[in-house]
Amino acid sequence: MATTQSTNSEEAPITPKKSSMLLDPNEYNKSDNAANSHQRNDSSYSRNFSLIDMYGEEAASSPTGPDSNDHGSTSDEQLDYQMLQSLDEFSFGEISTDHNVSQQTITQIRDTPTPQPPQHDEDDDDEDRLEIRQQYVIPTSMGNETKILNSPFDRYGFRKSSTHHGFTLEEYNDWFKEYSEYSYRRKKKWELLMKSHGLPIQEDDPVPTRFPPKSDKVKKMIRKGIPPEWRGNAWFFYAGGYDKLNRNAGVYHQIVENTKNIHNKDTEVIERDLHRTFPDNIYFNESIDANGNTLTVPLHSKETPLIKSLRRVLIAFAHYQPQIGYCQSLNFLAGLLLLFMEEERAFWMLVILTERIIPKVHSADLEGVHTDQGVLMLCVKEYIPQLWSILGTTFEGERLSDDQILSKLPPVTLVTSSWFMSLFVGIMPTETTLRIWDILWCEGSKTVFRFSLTILKLCLDNPEFDGAKHSPGGEADQIELFQFVQNFPKKILDCSNLVDLCFKKIGGYGFGSLSQDEINKCREFVSKQREMMNYKRRLSTKMTSEERYTLMNSSDGQLDGNNDIHDVYGFHRPIMGGVVWNRSISNKMKKTFAKRNSSRSST
Amino acid sequence: MSSRKKTLLKVIILGDSGVGKTSLMQQFVNNKFSHQYKATIGADFLTKEIIIDNNKPVTLQIWDTAGQERFQSLGVAFYRGADCCVLCFDVTNEKSLNNLTSWKDEFLVQSNVSNPQDFPFIIIGNKIDVDDSKKIPSLQKKLHNITHNQLGGLNYPVFETSAKDSINVEAAFEVIAKMALQQEELNAASGGDVNDDYNDAINIHLDGESSGCGC
């Protein structure tokens, strides 16, 4: 407790009780302006600089140092607010108006043998969002682990294995036997950590709402995995959710109210996506029973509570962020959030994500996706040069020169784009995705880059990748590579190993050295270059398509060629300052470089 | 290396979100249907080897794409080198039918094909298993208007399919493969004269077949 408050007092001055929603009036105004200007920028598409501004924003609002974090969210007033929240959500049987309901919830949490199909006892029209939320995640406990082992579904209600997965049910269970013991041990460690910060776990309220402030120790703990049933609260806490929520009290419910009966282009696509978000999850698919059988009820005849929540969150979000509207893949993000937290929080987490962590990735022109793929490719070239020598080509197998990388992104970016848009949901096994999310909410967007690089490096190191490796160039090889990178992540069940590989400097790839600062700089560079290229393109599109066509054919793509050229990003200068290379790794890298250079000069 | 290569035919499936592009591909390649397909983000592809015509083995590389408009800015590079483009709509969703022209235009702009005038397209109306009451009213007439409008330019073979019940899917892809092979040979002959006769032949052949399925 003492730690929490002492660190906070400097940054978040205690304000009089009355303004309990605000931490600091000045800060409130500042961020309010930022939010407004953000919207203004985006609503006028011709002005393309908003992305650059936003990349500054993540740096400002989620610094990477352990001591300068935004844990202003734990001031006294906020704690009060949090406790109120926690009472609303998690104190079963105490303030519940309906004793039976709360009893039922307790039994579900403590003893659920297998995930139960959602209860439909609430009437559809009576959508009181203050009702006690069903706990969807089966808590870590010795008893539950064996029950999950025997169930066709995992801890989160997802089918453990199907033809869409990259592993069999047996493989899943083999992994889970070991991993559940690990989870159990980690939970005990978390309980100790909480206790040492004066936040002991209460018997009657086993899911904490407050967490220790970010520190090296906490970062390490998070990288090793947050206890599954705590995840929703922990993500919300570390992402600055309380801050966001407090500044926007009541806003979500107002939007939901205002958008209740609207129909537009976005709602149309949302409706179509609701049932194909998590069709293999019992909380999103009413036609699966607890034994894993698909019932032959008429399709989508009865909606689960989470489908309804998903609809409200996505529609409200499209309304709140008109420059994004609805973009496919937001359904996966919102869907996963909803398994862990109630919908108002899930909504604000989506806002935090799209405003701060991966800005413009879901916007109408997907500009953020293009930018981030450019950044990722520059990183691949810098950190995994051997892989770049294979994938750094166009679809036709033509090699990309340094000043073409951003204009002609390699084919593999079609695969990695979806990693950024859905933040690995559906790309990797559920627990693996969740472990990355644990880190993402605490450490920010660099996490997506670090893990993307780790996966790509794993591909390269995989013996089955050999086929593609030995014959670089040519369209067929690009296709092979594309397919390999597409399918490979589905098999990464061993999430602890993935995290270790990502961060460990010895015995791992050490991508932890890729700093947020570097990512921000690189994003800024790429987005400026793209702006220039787009400007040139717009000039050329003023010609009719026939003019362009003849010009391109006659001058052998000269027009295209002009657009291709952009500045070359210098990684070395900025990055070497921030990197603490382990000596053995740097020697290894030097050798690889030398080898690569000599082999290149010989060819 | 190239001597060992089989004929590879690249097919792109386009159409509005939710018309069943993934289902069609899965039904053709893996002979299965599931209600459990997730929305496609980015692009995906599957390959299948088939034998067409006179015992010629070919490999179809079928690209499944995301239907939401904004994804077009991502997935344009792989349009290049396509040998056939499948334009899909949902027989219960009139908007998806009306959007076929824009999908075709978008494809031609991005793929940069050498013969935009007679590049092989095929139209698939999916979900014919759905109850008649939910289908687009006077679908045949509307379809006819779109496909027989010489100015609008969508006079391509039409197949009405059900990826769910596996109706007409195989037949559609067989024609797709034939058309793609023709295009591929055309490209291999370094963009020589276009063979109009062949396309006409396909048209005639298919008109009979698609009306024969009586939907």
From TrEMBL, chain A:
One Gene Ontology cellular component annotation held by this UniProt entry: site of polarized growth
Designated name of the protein: Rab-GAP TBC domain-containing protein
Organism expressing this protein natively: Spathaspora passalidarum (strain NRRL Y-27907 / 11-Y1)
Coiled coil (residue ranges): none
Residue stretches making up the Rab-GAP TBC domain: 225-444
Region (Disordered): 1-76, 99-127
Bias-annotated ranges (Polar residues): 1-10, 31-49, 99-110
Pfam families given in the database record: RabGAP-TBC (PF00566)
One function term, GO molecular function aspect: GTPase activator activity
Automatic annotation (TrEMBL), chain B:
Pfam families (alphabetical): Ras (PF00071)
Gene Ontology BP terms: cytoplasm to vacuole targeting by the Cvt pathway; endocytosis; piecemeal microautophagy of the nucleus; regulation of protein-containing complex assembly; regulation of vacuole fusion, non-autophagic; retrograde transport, endosome to Golgi; vacuole inheritance
GO cellular component: cytosol; fungal-type vacuole membrane; multivesicular body; vacuole-mitochondrion membrane contact site
CDD domains documented for this protein: Rab7 (cd01862)
Keywords: GTP-binding, Lipoprotein, Methylation, Nucleotide-binding, Prenylation
GO molecular function: GTP binding; GTPase activity; protein-containing complex binding
Superkingdom to which the source organism belongs: Eukaryota
Similarity remark: Belongs to the small GTPase superfamily. Rab family.
PANTHER family xrefs: RAB FAMILY, RAS-RELATED PROTEIN RAB-7A
Identification of the protein by name: GTP-binding protein YPT7
Organism (species): Spathaspora passalidarum (strain NRRL Y-27907 / 11-Y1)
